[in-house]
Amino acid sequence: DGGITQSPKYLFRKEGQNVTLSCEQNLNHDAMYWYRQDPGQGLRLIYYSQIVNDFQKGDIAEGYSVSREKKESFPLTVTSAQKNPTAFYLCASTPTGSLTYEQYFGPGTRLTVT
Amino acid sequence: SQKIEQNSEALNIQEGKTATLTCNYTNYSPAYLQWYRQDPGRGPVFLLLIRENEKEKRKERLKVTFDTTLKQSLFHITASQPADSATYLCALGHDSGYALNFGKGTSLLVTP
Fold it and tell me: Distance between CA A83 and CA A80 in Å, rounded?
């Protein structure tokens, strides 16, 4: 059963705490992405990685950090420096050489910070 | 700055009719445009891709057009069904990489 898994589905944290969101894929995809979605908003790119041990900032990287030590895993850390961390976070991946550039999305993690 | 606009208001149509959603963009020269479907609380699902040199693409009841002069894509669902009710997102990309720019999406409600 291949796909992208994100855990947990719901996450609650106190303000000032760092929190790490998990993203794992067994699709053997090279490229992985993190997006943030706020109510009534489109997806905004936080970070992306096209290969292991390499990643680039997206449009809203401030207050976030990532690592890509394994092809299958691309965890996102929401740091206390992120001013408005409450949002729906989506992880996605794309196979290298894809003719449709299709992004496969995980089920998302809804983070609430109070 | 780059801007992608989709109908901000929800589109309500009757079952069996054709739904037409619009995606307009400015300050952008995409190599391709994609449409995704997103159900509440879930990740988007890829539907169709159309490249800059293509005018129209079809897949079952779906049809996408791409006018690079007007900087617009139209997404049509023919013979719509209540199960088509969802939010539809357009996304633009370049061949140089896989990172996409998404619109805010249009909510479609198909009533019996």
Answer: 7
